[in-house]
Amino acid sequence: MADQHTSAPPPADRALPATAWAVLGLLSFPGERTGYELKKWADASLRFFYWSPAISQIYAELRRLESLGYVTSRRSGPEEPRTKRTYAITALGRGALADWAGSAQDAGAAVLKHPLLLRVWLGHLTSPEHLRALVVEHIARTKGELKEVMDAGAQAEGVEAWAHPQIALRWSERRLKSELELAEAMLADLDELPS
Amino acid sequence: MADQHTSAPPPADRALPATAWAVLGLLSFPGERTGYELKKWADASLRFFYWSPAISQIYAELRRLESLGYVTSRRSGPEEPRTKRTYAITALGRGALADWAGSAQDAGAAVLKHPLLLRVWLGHLTSPEHLRALVVEHIARTKGELKEVMDAGAQAEGVEAWAHPQIALRWSERRLKSELELAEAMLADLDELPS
DNA sequence: GTGTGCATGTAAGTGGTTACATGATTGA
DNA sequence: TCAATCATGTAACCACTTACATGCACAC
Lengths: 195, 195
Fold this sequence. Notes:
Structural class of chain A: mainly alpha
CATH superfamily of the largest domain in chain A: Winged helix-like DNA-binding domain superfamily/Winged helix DNA-binding domain
Strand content of chain A: 5-15%
Largest sheet of chain A: 3 strands, antiparallel
Pfam family, one (chains A, B): Vir_act_alpha_C
Oligomer: homodimer
Radius of gyration of chain A: 21 Å
InterPro entries (chains A, B): Tscrpt_reg_PadR_C, Tscrpt_reg_PadR_N, WH-like_DNA-bd_sf, WH_DNA-bd_sf
Number of helices of chain A: 7
Strand order of the largest sheet of chain A: 1-3-2
Distance between the termini of chain A: 66 Å
Protein name (chains A, B): PadR family transcriptional regulator
């Protein structure tokens, strides 16, 4: 436990959580942006295949990233009047992110937490009508999300820097369409259940 | 802060997390089981559409559930020699679980955390070959999971108490099949990318 | 007699959320 | 002038994981 206070922290003592890389990734596309903008971005795209951290989490992540030298920030530029802080990725950050992206030979298992399925799984405790209603509600929500994804995809159209994000969005679009089919099939299964 | 030690705690001061209901749900099917068995169960079914808590978490959840009177436990029955603790759901617990299952008119949005998609999204930072390899790896893993789901589904076959869990497994099976298609389609998209 | 599975639990720590607090800017 | 949006941040809390510790039973 000697030397508790090193002025320059060792490059990376502990591995960063995926969230940190996701936030840094958001900054790896051309342009600078504020934490607030990052949150909206995450809501509009990341969310569909990874998840959107709380805004407070994004700010915390940005501070950590800055302390590692992976991003820099500047307060309210000459033109802009507001008290806002704009972040940009550094060369070091880009390098670290590229290392992370290229390192693993296995991205890791996907985590799915589907509350609707949890209810269906416990279906013996409630009425068939209620279960049906939940599935129907889920279908409606999914249709809404599908619309959002398609809008996001349209915005990325043609911009070459967005090529990969667009593939992710296309995947999400197909995924949501399949989610609808899955829900319909489950509705049919539910109907075939003996009362 | 008067009366810190009420012998019978008020039914539920704070809402329980979904995990608690999932664990209680595991006990809502006929039979008693140990924490260890619960974990294996969760790994074999819950995991495919919700997720499997760490074993230590399951033990913690069981203690909480017991303190609420939702489950009871007994140590090593007359026959069984080992130091194990077997849990069973109580009428109170079953009631609370049924309330939870029947209460919401909306199960809540599904959360998907797909590390592979995160890498693809950041594809501009790595090589097309590496990206392809990750997708291929994911396909292999998914095939393995599909096999597991089908095995689990086969075990539930015909048992009437498992009707709903089986629907959840059937959903999972279809979902994994669609996951494979999605991955293949993404592979095709990746190939069409200009270098 | 040794490793694997069964079985339970503690301690420490991280990741993340919600609620709260603050204030400037924009447009109806 | 009032509400919504932009913008940042703190504090408290909780959910959950990892690592560790322990020990029995059984098969090879």
